[in-house]
Amino acid sequence: MNTKEQNKKKKGFTLIELIIVIAIIAILAAIAIPNFLGIQRKSKIKADIASAKTIYDATSAAIAEGAINPEELKTVSGTNEKVGESTVELNPESKASDGPGKAIEDRLQTIPTGRYTPGNFIVTIKQESDSIKPTITVSIKPKDAQQDTANIEVYPNGTGKYSINSLDGSAN
């Protein structure tokens, strides 16, 4: 009769069992959290690349439709004077009123900003005198960068974290 009463009282977990379960959960969390942060970083990089490609496509469409005339960007004939480059900063807080900036913004639903590298996107259109097709590059101007800091090219030839060859995001 005494053993029946003892068996009824043994309902629950011992302290050792609870500590082991907590230790297993802590080990799983220690493994999962860094992986989650890596996935989050990669998704922000891929979002920036996707935004840059959208801007690139909008710029190409503006050129194809004649809203941006690359012939106006060519080098002055007979001189070495380069007028063959136009740089546009896409700023969601202040929209462009005319020129290439307005032509690009008109073809975008929203003006994106950098997710991995906070800042505004920069579009550079270059037209060489001997080239038929202009060169378009999309970069990010880091938000807190100094004046002389270079922009980070994102598309089509990304640099550093935005390099297509560094899909793991480990490039500098």
UniProtKB/TrEMBL annotation:
Key words of the record: Membrane, Transmembrane, Transmembrane helix
Q: Which residues form the signal peptide?
A: none
Domain of life of the source = Bacteria
> Pfam families, from UniProt?
N_methyl (PF07963)
Q: Which residues cross the membrane?
A: 12-37
Q: Which PROSITE patterns match?
A: PROKAR_NTER_METHYL
Q: Which Gene3D superfamilies match?
A: Glycoprotein, Type 4 Pilin
Key word Isomerase present? no
State whether keyword Membrane applies: yes
The chain's coiled-coil residues are none
Q: Which InterPro entries match?
A: N_methyl_site, Pilin-like
Query: What is this protein identified as?
Result: Prepilin-type N-terminal cleavage/methylation domain-containing protein
The record lists the organism as: Clostridium perfringens
